[in-house]
Predict the 3D structure of the following.
Amino acid sequence: MSPPSATFDLPASTNPTNVLKANLSVKPTGIATSLSAISSNWPAFTFAPIRESQVSRAMTSRYFADLDSYAESDVVIIGAGSCGLSAAYTLATARPDLKIALLEAGVAPGGGAWLGGQLFSAMVMRKPAQLFLNEIGVAYEDEGDFVVVKHAALFTATLLSKVLACENVKLFNATTVEDLITRAEGEEGRVRIAGVVTNWTLVAMHHGDQSCMDPNTINAPIVISTTGHDGPFGAFSVKRLVAMQQLPQLGGMRGLDMGTAEDAIVKGTREIVPGLIVGGMELSEVDGANRMGPTFGAMVLSGVKAAEEAVKLVEK
Ligand code: 48N
């Protein structure tokens, strides 16, 4: 028995596609009329002319202009996962005067937020994180104490597009932060973070099998590190701080406890050493916080808090 047609008075049908058509909230209109000039005469179709060097110059002139401009940034964010992207969006929209460099080791930003848990599609966020979804215009189903975005990629793609649309953000993807720039500050042996050391990720992965391939740099008085929990690339900055004797040791991420993990990560997002704010799952490695598993509200709100901590430092 097919479900009653909610929007059209059609006879019950055993053909499911008819039921689908009957319930479409958006009526099909065919190829968008804005493309009809093309689709109406394919045999006559041709692109405007171009020379290969024009493509090369269009890409390289812009990329190297960005490298030159962002060599001195106001804020660097390491890691464009759900926390880093939320921090970038919040900071860029709150302070459009700040120049923000967003460094992402992967070709594809988004970290672990393209899927829910165990490769399932839906993404769960506990309230009040739905306020951020409202802010960026992502639809969700309200389940009472939590909401569900129908596909994690809808959240991540929407947030990524909003970040990339910000005039004051430059995403350097496929680019790894290999080290931190430091300045001696305070008591003997203590430092302030003053930027990042970068390299193409493919180069960073092959230092061992090539002669020295030195890195590049970005100076910035504030760095937000959201590189995720420990893994091949994860927990980068906090592991580097231990190696530089700026942290005694890592607390190590604890077992899964959703009820405690998310509050701890959001409330604990803070400046760990002068100039370096840590958020998201990277923070769990510092504080020995529990993991929360496949719920993402803490990542988003930790990103919001990291942005607020950065604004406090800017305004100091
Ligand atoms: O998604 P992640 O790994 O990290 P977060 O903190 O944004 O979100 C964590 C979240 O996905 C979870 O782990 C969920 C909630 N599960 C928890 C649990 O209990 O299992 O994004 C980190 C990003 C990635 O895209 C990395 O590629 C990137 O950071 N990255 C780096 N980018 C540049 N330079 C580096 N050195 C670097 N290290 C990591």
